[in-house]
Batch of 3 targets.
Target 1
Amino acid sequence: MTIFHILQKKDAVVLWQDGVLLAIKYPDYFAKCKGNCMILKQDILARNLTALLPQSSKIKLISIEELVGITENYLPQLSL
């Protein structure tokens, strides 16, 4: 069992920096995620991983500006 199994629709997961690799390495985690799953677009582009993202992925690419809005709307926040 992973943390993705306990997420609810009101939760959000944002991957950035090397965390974006989780979406490539463990796509099944995100396929089962009930929360809003997002990846910082600039980190995917910086690592040239766009082509490796699963086509069926529910993960949304977001900008740094969108990240600011997300951090304003989701409380509390934790980092793993």
Target 2
Amino acid sequence: MEDPIVSTIRYAQADSEALITEKAYILNYPTPPGIPKSNFNIDFFPRIKIRNLRTANLDWDENGVAIAKLPGCMPKEDFDDEEKIEKFYLPDVHNCIRDTLGAEEVCIFDYMVRKRDAAFPYQAKTKDNAPQPALSAHIGNAWKPLAGPLRDYPMAYCDAKTLDPDTDLLTVDEVFPTVANEVYQVLYNPNHKWYYIPDQLHTELAIFAGYDSRKGQSLSVPHCSFDLGDKSSGGPRQSIEVRAFVFYGNK
């Protein structure tokens, strides 16, 4: 059995006194003096083992993550064209998710192309800088790099079977100038098991559960990017993430 990668993952911490009386929040806009941009901390947890997803033999219904092969894929430069994404890429992802999960229907409702700034994870956020798939773990759907093999900040996925939704999730209001979202930040639990796809290709799609109404929040997969250290190579990662509703009929 091959050795896992050992890296650092950032987790939220729920030990702030402010959380006794306030809901956790992150303000993604300039704040006046005396108004903190967040009322909780996110900290580094080193020496997290991240195993090979290809050889892990995980099951979607139990673990919430799967690898799928796209029939083909657009060249990287075409992902700057929304019309091409919606005409060519999204139908392939739709079919791939449906066939891999055995779903009756799939409804894609959102996607985002991300291009990692060379300074990530330390760059400042601007209106032209879409939020990265953060080093702190959060919840998602379907992801791939625009070019491969990927050796720059790959994605790691937490086995849903090792997540305790009653103790491991912090509900957070993420507030922007014109909209607010409710998201989850993940709290450290030594029972978490993390996996990644080594040298992920641009034709490989990682499909992972965000929420499954058949099982409640027990099938939610935190995911995050992580540093490969001296195994890193290539330019800054570019990727696309797609979110979809998946319907199973009578399952």
Target 3
Amino acid sequence: MVQGVSQGYVKVLELVGVGYRAQMQGKDLILNVGYSHPVEIKAEENITFSVEKNTVVKVEGISKEQVGALASNIRSVRPPEPYKGKGIRYQGEYVRRKEGKTGK
């Protein structure tokens, strides 16, 4: 059996950061990730979004390529930064952290 038809493909993204939130507006996804404006992401055909606890976004669909591309577009809105680790990351993704400058 074909996985896309029987189970579908899922990518899970986490929003890490104070005040970073995701919410649904109809079928579209609204992200508040520290910009002066909310970022709206339209749902493509055969792709659905779901939001859990305002910080976990699931992208589901029957095409692995479409799901991965849309999840990558969402992540590119605010990729994780290496100093505090804030941003949008895939679930289970390891973000390599850097040390900041040392004070005098």
